[in-house]
Amino acid sequence: MAFTWRFGKKSGPTDPIAHAERLVQSGKFLQAIDSLTQANSASPSPAVEARLIELRHEALFHLSPKSSFPTWPPATTNLFSDVVGIPEISRDELNVEKLRSAILNNGSLIVRNLITPSEAQAAIDDVNSSFEKYDDAIVGKPLEDSAPWFVPFKSSEQLGVTEFSAWSPEDQGSRHWVRDGGGVLAADSPRTFSHLIELFQNNSIISLIQAYLGERPALSVKKTTLRRVACGGDTANGWHQDGAFLGEGIRTINLWIALTDCGVDAPTMDMVPKRLHEIAPTGTHGAAFDWSVSREIVDECSADLPPVRLQFKAGDAILFDEMNLHCTAIAPGMTKDRYAIEAWFFAPSCYPMNQLPLMV
Ligand SMILES: O=C(O)CCC(=O)C(=O)O
User: Fold this and answer.
1) How confident is the model over 273-318, as pLDDT tens digits?
2) Which ligand 1 atom minimizes the distance to the CA of 183?
3) Which residues contact 315 (CB under 8 A, 6 or more apart)?
């Protein structure tokens, strides 16, 4: 495909990928990402979207990120001391102080109407296309026909890991597990990933997360998921704290956006509505997995404040970190599927590389 793209008034028609490669050659990875992101927003291209995923992944191997916070977590005042449970605010009230206060004191923050119904609908369409093309690829249809909705993410050789280093329909690695749980990895869908970055930028989410983490964030390939959870399915993932398997010394924030109404007739999440300061024991009697927490321990952790079933309208969001104890909730009377975006942002200065970084 031939590109004609003007970078500023002086440069004339330029291939955006060639321009980005020149920036990469001089070590300017973030500028290359920004330049390609801008070019792709103006004129979407499968080739640019695919190269962007590669560059976002490669970038952290070439950067020396620093946080503006010498210690973690930073001090915070308790802005929701009168709230029992999870604080709720509207999109207009959202700022980094409220976010930090809610996460560190109450365990999470609900933001009503973070995105608009039409943004949610556009994301649902993207999720459907990503699932459709992923499912085509695993039954052996040619990968060329699946792009840009499914282009298997390839991890950097510098990681020395075999998982995600090659694609085969027979060996999907942990993708298989994610798909069985009603998810497709956002990194496997360059078009959807580009739309997500636009959605986050248009709603000032990246600048908010950057202020929260004290540095330009990276998303995790393995945790950032497009979710379509079936009402009649058996995809409950067990109670868990993501910190139980993401590694120690990390700085994270998960943005979970409901794309459809959920919690009444569609699957949602159940959540312990308070800040936990320890990782609860995992894999004990009654736990579904070695990384998940038994109901008995959930009840112990939440003796003073029992778990809540979250109810959202399309476009509502909840933000929390790796200490939050939650699980997918599917009840017998539910009749509708639920769509959501789960975006795990990490501070690059202490990124657990086995989570496979993608600079935003
Ligand atoms: O979407 C779900 O049901 C589960 C999400 C989850 O476990 C998470 O965001 O960490």
Assistant:
1) 999 999 999 999 888 888 999 999 999 999 999 999 999 999 999 9
2) 1
3) 113, 114, 115, 116, 117, 119, 120, 257, 258, 259
How many Å lie between the centroid of ligand 1 and the Cα of residue 326? 8
Please determine, for residue 348, whether its predicted confidence score (pLDDT) is greater than 70: yes
pLDDT of 1 strictly over 50: no
What domains sit in the chain, N to C, each tagged with a CATH number? Answer: 67-359 (2.60.120.620)
- Give the model's pLDDT for residue 159: 79
Give residues (CB < 6 A) around ligand 1.
227, 229, 237, 242, 254, 256, 269, 326, 328, 340, 342
CA of 255 from ligand 1 middle (Å) equals: 10
Helix residue spans in the chain (DSSP H): 8-11, 16-25, 29-42, 46-59, 96-101, 117-138, 175-180, 190-202, 205-213, 243-246, 295-301
* Protein residue closest via CA to atom 7 of ligand 1: 327
Select from 260, 292, 342 the residue to mutate for testing ligand 1; criterion: most ligand atoms less than 8 Å from CB: 342
78: pLDDT strictly greater than 60: yes
ω into 217 cis (within 30 of 0): no
* Residue 206 burial (C-beta neighbours within 10 Å; 0-12, 13-18, 19+): middle
Residues 286 and 296 sit within 8 Å (Cβ to Cβ): yes
